[in-house]
Each structure stands twice: as C-alpha cells, then as structure tokens.
Design goal:
The chain is built from 11 helices and 8 strands. It is of the alpha/beta class.
C-alpha cells in the first residue's frame, strides 16, 4: 500500500453525495463543526493507543477520505502506511493536493473507488486499522451493512475500526442536536450570502434523517456486534459528533 495515486472506475452502488458545491466549499462545513478539533484529538489518541505496542509497519485504510482529514491523523502515526479511498473525484483532488508529500514518500496510496468494491478486493485479514470520518452516515442502511461486513473481513485479528461520524441519539437528545447543528449552518453561511450552499447542506442533513439512511447509535453498535466486532463503544460524544471504536477479536481467523 505504498504506491502513488491510482484511479479506478467508481462502482455505482456507492452514492456520490458530495458532488458540486458540497465538495468545492467543504471547508465552510468545517466552520460549522466547532468540535472537529476534539473529535480528531480522540481519533488520534485511539490510533496511538492501538499502535503503541505493535511492530511496524501497520496497514491502514481510510474509507471515504474526503479532503484527507482522517488520513492526516493516520499518517501522524509513523508506523502506519495508508490507503485512502473515495468515490468523488473532487474530494480526491483536494486530498491529493494536501497530502502530496506522503504520496511521494510512499506512505500513502490514494484510490478513486467505491468503498465496498475496494474492500471486497482486499485479502482477508490484511489491514490493521480501518478508519473513517463523516462518511458512513451518508450510506443507505443496506449498503452500510455490507461495508461493516467487509471491514470486519479485511481486518487482522485484534484490528481496530474507528469512525468519527454523526451517530443519531434517541428521542429529544437527537432532535435538539440536529436543531443546534442546522442553526450553526445558518450562522456560518447566511452572513457569507452562501444561500444555495445553505440550502444544499440543510437538505443533505434532512436526507440523513430518512428511514433506511439515518444511523442511530444503538443500531450501529448492535450491527457491529452482529458482524463479529467486540468492545464496540462510543468513546466521544458532543451534540451530533461522535467517535465509535470496535475491534476484531484476537482469536478470529482469516475467512
């Protein structure tokens, strides 16, 4: 996993929900997510804890790398060699520009491809860490389940799955968090007269709430357990932002 950028035709089974302005103006999304620094700090701590007593090199996959935010956290661990994948060319272009040094050094391979298609090609038990950031909630429930199973298959025994994402709480807590988040989009985008982008983000978040797509925390934890993961835990929560970690059992043998 140490080649320069590779492109492959994306599988149409994976949706592309970040085309157009949502990709081009993605940095503005960050301005409306005040807890991202905390989220990334938690992810970094989990990566460091996992890598501490393990010999190098370790193989990691960033599923839906976007502009490379989680990839940067992975690359900060010197033991890791990383493959980052995404099915949106504009996001891949941003990541390649930001992370060109790691590509040139052979520590990062960037792949334009659908997540499940890519994972299905990897050998079983070939990856130490599978990471993702604000991607899995974009998938339909059925497709997300396939990705969970694929992640479990490719992880080595004892391997780590870490996901920073929008895990829906139950009842009023989730409604309050959603209302608060949508308010921040208005606060950030309306003064900049980014009204079309504001509309796109609000509609995107509304679609995230639809049956068959919404990602409830309790359901995600239960689904990972059914896939075979252990120690599945939400280790951070602040409004809509959460970090979930899980492990493949040490005694699990390759499929």
């Amino acid at each position: 996993m140490s080649e320069s950028q590779t492109s492959a035709p994306p599988d149409t089974a994976g949706e592309k929900r970040f085309a157009g302005a949502l990709s081009d103006d993605y940095p503005l999304w960050r301005l409306a997510r005040p807890f991202l620094g905390e989220v990334h700090g938690v992810v970094s701590a989990e990566l460091a804890k996992f890598a501490h007593d393990r010999p190098a090199p370790l193989q990691a996959v960033d599923i839906g790398m976007g502009d490379g935010a989680i990839t940067k956290l992975l690359l900060a661990e010197p033991k890791l060699t990383v493959t980052g994948l995404d099915n949106e060319p504009r996001m891949i272009a941003q990541a390649e520009k930001a992370l060109r040094g790691a590509v040139d050094d052979g520590r990062l391979k960037i792949v334009l491809e659908d997540a499940h298609t890519f994972l299905a090609r990897l050998p079983a038990a070939s990856v130490d860490i599978a990471a993702s950031g604000y991607v899995l909630h974009n998938l339909t429930e059925d497709y997300r389940d396939k990705v969970y199973d694929a992640i479990f298959r490719v992880l080595k025994p004892g391997g780590l799955f870490v996901n920073a994402d929008k895990y829906a709480q139950s009842g009023q807590a989730h409604r309050d968090a959603l209302r608060w988040q949508l308010g921040l989009f208005f606060d950030v985008l309306a003064p900049r007269q980014k009204y079309d982008l504001l509309r796109d983000w609000v509609l995107h978040y509304v679609e995230d709430e639809m049956p068959g797509r919404v990602m409830p925390e309790a359901d995600a934890v239960a689904r990972l357990a059914r896939a075979g993961f252990v120690d599945e835990t939400i280790v951070y929560r602040n409004h809509m932002d959460a970090v979930l970690v899980a492990h493949k059992p040490q005694g699990e043998r390759p499929a």
